[in-house]
């Protein structure tokens, strides 16, 4: 995979709470310059203008997921009305840890109904905070609720971010019916390619330029 191909798997991400309007505008421009698939932003950044060919992804219930489903649904609907092509929602990790997968499904379904297709729905499961059994249960709930992707992490949880093991397990669970996004703690070209090899089809990166340049300077890509 060359750098241009890798870039087309990337949601170039800016979710820092201290991000300014200038930071947001610079991130959008950088995403377009790098040839990323999308730019991923906080909902308060909207409305924004993105160049043609660049998708706009917006987080929902971020980063804790401890919001009422009605609030997540309203947030997703507003983002979609302001131009979001994709919604990256956070589940309530606590209920997943309790094994309440029916409630996880209901939470996801509320957002899906508020932002129906063609808006793409990604479900952030915080895989590092879950057991393998819980990861499987949440992935099945996401599929049943009509999600398009399952996503490893917010990148803000103290348990950690994406792992090859979690991506592989998520891919095994959803097969080709859903896609898998790896996000959180991916900082090198080797990390990025390992996630793709494990079954991810999308990457959430903030250090996109550095990761793409890593392959170019090493001469191996």
TrEMBL record:
Keywords: Cytoplasm, Lyase, Schiff base. Its main location: cytoplasm. One of its GO terms (molecular function) is deoxyribose-phosphate aldolase activity. It is found in: Cytoplasm. It catalyses: 2-deoxy-D-ribose 5-phosphate = D-glyceraldehyde 3-phosphate + acetaldehyde. Its EC number is 4.1.2.4. GO terms for cellular component: cytoplasm. The keyword Ligase does not apply. SMART domains: DeoC (SM01133). The active site is at 88 (proton donor/acceptor), 151 (schiff-base intermediate with acetaldehyde), 181 (proton donor/acceptor). Coiled coil: none annotated. Transmembrane segments: none annotated. Pathway: Carbohydrate degradation; 2-deoxy-D-ribose 1-phosphate degradation; D-glyceraldehyde 3-phosphate and acetaldehyde from 2-deoxy-alpha-D-ribose 1-phosphate: step 2/2. GO terms for biological process: 2-deoxyribose 1-phosphate catabolic process; carbohydrate catabolic process; deoxyribonucleotide catabolic process. Catalyzes a reversible aldol reaction between acetaldehyde and D-glyceraldehyde 3-phosphate to generate 2-deoxy-D-ribose 5-phosphate. Belongs to the DeoC/FbaB aldolase family. DeoC type 1 subfamily. PANTHER family: DEOXYRIBOSE-PHOSPHATE ALDOLASE. HAMAP family: DeoC_type1. NCBIfam families: deoC. This is Deoxyribose-phosphate aldolase. It comes from Microbacterium thalassium. The lineage of its organism: Bacteria, Bacillati, Actinomycetota, Actinomycetes, Micrococcales.
